[in-house]
Specification:
With 509 residues, the chain is mainly beta. The protein is 10% helix and 39% strand. The chain has seven helices and 35 strands. The strands form nine sheets. A five-stranded antiparallel sheet has the order 1-6-5-4-3, with no helix packed on it. Residues 1-18 have low confidence and may be disordered.
Amino acid sequence: MRPFYFSAALLLAASIPVLAQSPRPMTLVDVMNVPLIGDPQISPNGSQILFVRTEANWKANRRISHIWRIDADGSKLLQLTSGAEGESTPRWSPDGLSVAFVAKRGTDADAVAQVYILDNSGGEARAVTSHPTAVSNLTWSPDGSTIYFRAANPKSAERKAREKAKDDVIVFDEDFEQQHLWKVTVASKVEKRITDGDFSVMSYSLSNDGSKIVMNRAPSPLMEDIDRSEVWLTDQDGMNAAQITHNSVQESDVSVSPDNSTVLFLAGANREFSTYYNHKIFTAPVAGGGSARLLTPTLKYEVERAAWSKDGKSIFFTANMGVHSELFRMPSTGGDPEQLTNGEHSISGWTLSIAANEQVAVVSNLSAPGEIWIAPADGSAAPRKVTSTFDYLSREFKLPRHEKIEWKGADGTTVEGLLYYPIDYKPGQRYPLVVQTHGGPQASDKFGFGGTQNYVAVLAAKGYAVLQPNYRGSTGYGDVFLRDMVGHYFQNAHLDVMAGVDYLIAKGI
């Protein structure tokens, strides 16, 4: 895992083909070779960004992820790790001198993912955990002395014996292990359990001062128990656990306000905590047993991520607006959100760093599956692109033109979706059409490059037009649009899709 810099000479040699070639249509292999960028993390001083780059490894017959680093000005691209099994979850130490990550090392068949630490200046990574089960969800304590992580309880001796004897048939809703919270002291490598009991910690976060932990607890990690999860608050050592919410919906993205007085969470619910709504922002007081408050009652979009500002007076969040997602800001006491970005793109992996006073995210559009962008934490300036991983795509390949289109459903409701044109499209000429409907149905297709799941660039290269309709039941268009399926699943969704096809036929496409 010795880091290495790409020299300017190597980059230049790799970018200049022997003979200049015109852009060509993409093949399935080309699409599978496109890397993916994710999980950007900005350093505490705002000067560097860690991220995970995932690429196809044809010899291993799978995708493998490694951790990279780049300066915030877009220079000094550096690969930090190169383990055979890959690495994930890079997290800066509070002083910015070290990077913690998750990796599986060694040839032992029983080896599982552990926490490793690598000096930011280089060298070999060192393991700081030897946990019996795989670790995940790393968080440094504010003083840098410990790292929190989630892990499943160890398998029982009986179950291990059965698996060793190949008697490994399981009962899905019975043979599971609860997920709990642990921490490890970096210097001594001593691990300590934080939570214990017949429940699972599904997610968690530390307060800014490290004195509190807010977590999402469920009776089990099984899908059937998701709606039975609740928000809990504990001290940093897991003591004095207090239940914050009492409802029948799933909560997510939990965090504590800077003054430790209020908990923020997201839930796909309405004010009365009925389920199956677009995700919204809720807050609840830590003390006094007050009820949770809906902060975004009039927002028709789906909130995807949310975070407190440094002073706790604002909440920043990303929202799904149907065919695109954008960044917003609103007062933490409630009020009308202010949209900070707007474009033909989708946003993922967004985080707000209080220490760096920056926001960082992965932004995807037609010519780039996801480049890293940064912006000031207070939203005072427009986002700025940092990486240029996908500049080669528009140089080397013919990419399809795409646009948002709108049509009327059978009952007159406006429906929208994305239309990708065939390569070298000629107006007035008719083309075969491929319709790709997203799953969920609580989801929506957004502006972006596509990928191995929908390979629109390949279909366009083969002469197809591609329609991705956000039919009734999709998120990002308000609760009425989303809940049209409730009680009558096939009322409008299929008609919306067919109306979109008829619209394109009528347009002569």
